[in-house]
Structures are given as structure tokens and as C-alpha cells.
Amino acid sequence: MTNNRNLPTANSQQPTANRQPPTANCLPPTQKGRQYEMRAQGLREFAGLRSDHQPLDPFKLASYARLLVVSFDQVTGLSPEARDHLLGDGKDLWSGGAASKRLPDGSKLIILNPQHSPARHKATLMEEISHVFLGHQPSRLQIEKKTRDGRTIARDYNAEIEEEAYSTGAAALVPYTALERMVRSGRTVPEIARHYGVSRALVEYRIKVSRLWELYKNNIFSKP
Ligand SMILES: [Zn+2]
After folding, report:
1. From its phi and psi, is residue 66 left (phi > 0), alpha (psi between -120 and 50) or beta?
2. Ligand 1 centroid to 28 CA: how many Å?
3. In the chain, domain spans
4. Ligand 1 centroid, distance to 140 Cα (angstroms)
5. Ligand 1: centre distance to CA 178 (Å)
6. Mean predicted confidence (pLDDT) in 52-79
7. 26-173 architecture in CATH?
8. Quick one: pLDDT at residue 140?
9. Burial class (CB in 10 A: 0-12, 13-18, 19+), 97
10. Do the beta carbons of residue 67 and residue 129 sit within 8 Å?
11. pLDDT in tens, 107-120
12. pLDDT tens-digit map of 136-175
């Protein structure tokens, strides 16, 4: 798959003439939240969305990030045991995977867990797109931690980078300004999730990190 419009990385992005600097009340109250939100707005703008109310389709963005989503069935070379594990006992242990080597055309394969819902696929794929957009180096994602005697104890998935990618992706899927408006007007988590085509868990996460949970509870429980 080729395209001539590649996703720019957050740092290389040129300011566009019609981009307004976001005003303070368009942004969440925490410092981290504001950083994620501004990058998420950059992603939404790249996706051609005109309002924060519009749902974002990460599958349309994926090819610009040179990510090629393939179905689990298209993966060859897995042993029957590995396949059974990934789809059975281990199905809750992974949400998606990116191939470590790029294809000859520069794109990267992404596999989404077929046992997960389309709503979860969106968040997983959005995280992968954010890694590209934020310019994360794949080599930094998987560092093996060793004990003093050289034994590998755990993989450090670089929590900070993972948080940045997940949070930016989540903010792109459910933008703060629209979320704040919906919460204020008494929309419920399932309603908001349905509107954006994401999971309820993701909406709850966005409400909490945006410090809107108190407002949400008050509005929901005072509903007639
Ligand atoms: Zn990640």
C-alpha cells in the first residue's frame, strides 16, 4: 500500500495558517492532559476532522502512519499451540502487536486481537498511530531488564512512552472539549461511548483523567 501523504511527527509539524492556538478552557486542567490534548488535536486535524464532535476512524489514519492492519488469520508461521494460547488462555494478555521489521515498502504490520471488540481495536490502533506520530523509536519499547547476575527478569515497555501514546490516542478518539460538554449536559458513559464508537472503559478513563468525574457523577445522579 502506498500513499503520498505521510503522517507528520508531532515535532516536525509545520504550523498551518488557519490553526488557532487552543484557548485555555479548551484544554484539560492537568499539565500532562494539556500536552496530550494538543497532540491529539494535531492528529484529528491531520485526519481532516472539522469538529471535536466528529468520531475519528483510526483505520483511515493507519495508512498515513504507514501501518498495515492485517487480520490474525493472515499471520502465518504460528504454531498451533501459540495460536491456541493467543486466542484462548492468553486472549486478555495482549491487545495488538506490531511487527518489529518493516516491509520492503517501509510500512509496518499491525495485528489486532480478534477476540477483542471493534471498539477496543480502535484504541489499540490509535495507540500504534500515536507512537508513529510522536516519533517513538521502536527499539526503546522493548528493553530487557536484567538482574546483576545477568538473568532477564522482565521487559520494560517504557511506561512513560506507552502512557504518552495511549493517552494521546485516547484524547484523539474522545476530545476534551466535546467530552466536557457532553458530561455537563448529562450524557451517560454508554451514550458517549456509542457516539465515538469506543469502549465504555475508554470513556470512563477519559472522564477521570480529564478531572470530570465529580461533574459526571453529580449530573448523572441528579438526573430526573
Ligand atoms: Zn504501545
Report:
1. left
2. 23
3. 26-173
4. 11
5. 25
6. 88
7. Orthogonal Bundle (1.10)
8. 44
9. middle
10. yes
11. 888 888 888 899 99
12. 876 544 455 566 676 655 555 578 888 999 999 999 999 9
